[in-house]
Amino acid sequence: MMFVTNLRTPSEPTTINMKNALLFVLLVALFPRPTAGQGLIFDSAEFSKLPKARPKTGVKDLGTAPMRMDLTPYVPTLVRQGERDYTCVAIATAVHAIATQRAAAANDTDSRTILMKYALSPMYVFNKIGGDCGNGVTLAAVATFLRDEGSVAFSTYDATRCTDSQIPGSLKGTTNLIRIKAAETFFNRDSLKGPNRVVEDVKDHLAQKRPVVVGLPILETFKRITSANPYYAPNRRTKGGHAATVISYDDVQEEFKLANSYGEDWGQDGFFFMKYADFAASVEQALYMVLAPEPEADGKPVLTRLGGTFAFKNVEIENRAVNEYDQKPRHVGDGLYFLDKKDWKLRQRFRLQAENTQQSEHICVFSISLNNQIDIYFPEDIKYQPLNAKGQNQAPRIFGAGVSDLVLPSGRIVVPMDPESTLIIKETGTDYLCILYGNEPIKPELQQILERVQASSGPIMQRIKNALGSRAIAGQVAYAPDHMEAQVTPRQGDILPIVLEVKSR
């Protein structure tokens, strides 16, 4: 039997170990440690099924915008996904984006408190949508689940890795979930048409303190991001990707700052940067989330006011100049307004302007003539299908697809959107211009609502309320007497209509 003996003197091991330790530190500095997993599957077709953010209004508006917007003070303590986990999408949305937006609204800047108070559980979402820790998920799947089902608070189930325990049995049947109001896309490279506005659109959302979740291609250069070199510049597309959360922009440096899901000891305290040009050339998908009102202490949703304004502007061409004039209507009862002028001429030009004055609201605008002809003005990507002789739609159409009917706070809708176009009175008689304000999406049901209006008779407002059914607001509505404005705190129903009667001859 042979034994290997250590013949070093007592002082030698310390010297050699110190050399080894210094060598190890040097190697760690030269070669960053392996990153965690990725987890985003690019599915352009599925992503395109999410509602699209409405395009910018065509009305020229010289507004103000900050040169920098940094939401870093509102970002929660960054969490780390497992090194072989594919959970980046759930973390980027449920933790980093949602918690940052909620904390910014509450002006809360304690990162640990933000994580425990405002973040949602990423592993609850990942497990519920059937996520496989060895395979990724799509942005659309996670966003849709957060909208339709929701998640428990991070403090309730704080797992972040697949090695953590699965969803506790006590949570599997829970109904006390926190949902987002909506998730909307505004960039999908595979369906990109026209100029690439992604940089400006991301900046617009950040300026309103809404983080943006993006899908990026991941190359080997991502593994070499360090605190000393925190920039990422992918130069080609890949089949797989990674989700991250954009939380700041800087027009002076022309760069975005993004929160990653590799923990705070990666990159620059868990963040990395992308120059505008690199971002525009490489980002694959982008969406933002609209949050529901914060629940009360007992978990019940807060009752929020619903409503807005609706304006009729006649357009006149005078001395080769185009002028708009506001018409002041008067309220005659129950949300119905009349114009004092009742002899508008054939082919009179006009524009409509609607604003929501309370919160993120769903809005649809349409008109109904005395002979039941219906035209939809907003969202502009849908047309009403009149019934045929058998009372059936002439062709099938999916009303829930395409541009969203959601309008963000203090949003303005101008109809038509093209500043060089106007609406015109096509036939003499009486037309009713109608606007619906809703807390939930209206567009998917709009065709059925209009069919019921078309098939009914009687006073126009009563026809509309009957067509809305249980979604019609019940309660005391405050109507302005001398301009079209209404406000209500709904306790039953979620759609508030306003109608303007326009007579021409």
UniProtKB/TrEMBL annotation:
InterPro entries: Papain-like_cys_pep_sf, Peptidase_C1A_C. GO terms for molecular function: cysteine-type peptidase activity. Residues 189-278 form the Peptidase C1A papain C-terminal domain. It comes from the Bacteria. GO terms for biological process: proteolysis. Pfam families: Peptidase_C1 (PF00112). This is Peptidase C1A papain C-terminal domain-containing protein. It comes from Persicitalea jodogahamensis. The lineage of its organism: Bacteria, Pseudomonadati, Bacteroidota, Cytophagia, Cytophagales.
